[in-house]
């Protein structure tokens, strides 16, 4: 009886100690309506990556759980505007991803220098806007999400958590011991 209590306590302790680990995801959206060209562009691409840790274990990667976020060749949105990146400003206004669901985010970024200014904003499911201004002119792009826009995402380093594997091993060992006891019969 006492050994069962110890075994149950050990399993409960391992389960309580198991924590999520950061996972890196790579994502892409392909195919947008190009506002400037006034047509659908199937090759238009927004791609990026993020690293997040589901700290509260609710299955939703939220803005507060982001460790890194990049898209369209940008610098990391986490920690931007600090140190040598003082000229680069960015915001992540909204972010959320649940495995098996669409990725949702709203971001802005801008770079201002003496010779030029660049700013961009992305709201998934709605619009991507890019503006470049210099003494030589203005370059503006605008893409709209459509029903033809395709989303893809994959976890780059999705591996089982070490403590989850430990729980599996403990469970298998417990089953093996119970089986041996049954075979041995009462003493």
Automatic annotation (TrEMBL):
Alphabetically ordered keywords of this record: Signal
InterPro entries, per database record: Ice-binding_C (IPR013424)
NCBIfam families (UniProt xref): PEP_CTERM (TIGR02595)
Signal sequence, start to end: 1-20
Domain of life: Bacteria
Listed name of the protein: PEP-CTERM sorting domain-containing protein
